[in-house]
């Protein structure tokens, strides 16, 4: 098979996997991780691990208090679910105070979606003044009260995302607060969400932990394992880092064709903001032999058959 045929076929197979086209980088996977983003907070073996936040009573949120005009039960006859819908709609309409009040009410009633949304808002400074510590408390409360949520449910997606968010806070800490960097706790939080909820963002972050040896010994095999689980759930950064590791033989035996295939899948699903993925793919493809390119094509064919 000619190289040009391989290029066309690989691109077509990437599209067949369900990704939209887009446009690795010259360096080690560790350097790639510096370009790769943390998993975003989005709602996407099951024994709780030692170190995961325990179930318990609601924490004292501290920090700035919620708006004084928190709606009463009478304001939402249908209950917390109605408050969550009202708050979400108000947020879309730019009604900041109304949105926060309604979401606060829903969160007080234990709605995971409301607790997660408020955590995200305070973390990003969306419609509220940014307050990382308050965001931390919302995510912590969510993980404490819903850690045993049944995996696969809509609510579980918020809980898993909260575990990932807490893990990020423990990687970096929160300045001028009692939340200090603790890589070991971060690893346990990512592990819980990655194993119990099988969350791809958590699996990706756990792969990063093992690849860099943060809070644990470096372990290329474990990194590949977790990146692979996330990659099979169409997690683009995991696909790209996994592909680069395999192509270069970073921490594991080199599997150039398989690595190139995963980089191709990642590239086909990447957007304009993922230029580092396109760079990784171009670098690997330029270094690959014709035999490796042809073998990558066959591996992609297998992936397509598995998806059907």
The number of helical runs is 14
Give unreliable regions as ranges: 1-30, 40-70
Summarize the biggest pleated sheet.
none
Helix content: 55-70%
**Rg over alpha carbons:** 22 Å
**What structural class do the secondary elements suggest?**
mainly alpha
Number of strands: 0
Q: Kindly report the average pLDDT value.
A: 82
Strand content: under 5%
State the distance separating the first and last CA atoms.
Answer: 25 Å
Number of domains: 1
* SSE arrangement, N to C: HHHHHHHHHHHHHH
Shape: elongated
Topology summary:
Elements: H1 3-16, H2 29-35, H3 80-92, H4 96-108, H5 112-124, H6 132-146, H7 154-172, H8 183-195, H9 200-212, H10 220-231, H11 236-248, H12 256-269, H13 275-287, H14 290-307
Helix pairs in contact: 1-12, 1-14, 3-4, 4-5, 5-6, 5-7, 6-7, 7-8, 8-9, 9-10, 10-11, 11-12, 11-13, 12-13, 12-14
Q: How would you describe this structure to a colleague?
A:
This protein has 308 residues and is mostly helical. It has one domain (3-44, 56-146, 222-307). It has 14 helices and no strands. The chain has helices at residues 3-16, 29-35, 80-92, 96-108, 112-124, 132-146, 154-172, 183-195, 200-212, 220-231, 236-248, 256-269, 275-287, 290-307.
């Amino acid at each position: 098979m000619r190289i040009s045929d391989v290029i066309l076929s690989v691109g077509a197979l990437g599209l067949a996997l369900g990704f939209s086209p887009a446009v690795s980088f010259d360096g080690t996977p560790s350097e790639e991780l510096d370009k790769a983003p943390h998993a975003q907070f989005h709602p996407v073996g099951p024994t709780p691990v030692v170190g995961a936040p325990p179930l318990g009573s609601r924490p004292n949120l501290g920090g700035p208090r919620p708006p004084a005009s928190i709606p009463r039960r009478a304001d939402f006859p249908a209950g917390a679910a109605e408050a969550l819908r009202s708050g979400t709609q108000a947020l879309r309409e730019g009604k900041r105070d109304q949105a926060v009040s309604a979401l606060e009410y829903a969160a007080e009633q234990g709605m995971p979606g409301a607790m997660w949304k408020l955590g995200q808002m305070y973390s990003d400074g969306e419609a509220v003044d940014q307050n990382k510590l308050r965001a931390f408390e919302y995510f912590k409360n969510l993980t404490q009260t819903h850690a045993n949520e049944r995996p696969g449910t809509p609510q579980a997606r918020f809980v898993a995302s909260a575990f990932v968010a807490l893990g990020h806070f423990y990687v970096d800490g929160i300045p001028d607060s009692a939340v200090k960097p603790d890589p070991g706790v971060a690893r346990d939080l990512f592990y819980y969400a990655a194993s119990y909820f099988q969350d791809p963002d958590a699996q990706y972050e756990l792969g990063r932990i093992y690849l860099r040896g943060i809070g644990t010994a470096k372990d290329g095999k474990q990194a590949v394992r977790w990146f692979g689980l996330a990659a099979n759930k169409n997690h683009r950064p995991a696909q790209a880092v996994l592909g680069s590791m395999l192509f270069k033989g970073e921490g594991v035996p080199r599997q150039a064709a398989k690595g190139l295939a995963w980089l191709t899948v990642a590239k086909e699903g990447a957007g304009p903001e993922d230029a580092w993925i396109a760079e990784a793919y171009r670098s690997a493809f330029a270094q690959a032999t014709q035999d490796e390119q042809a073998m990558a094509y066959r591996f992609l064919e297998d992936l397509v058959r598995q998806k059907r």
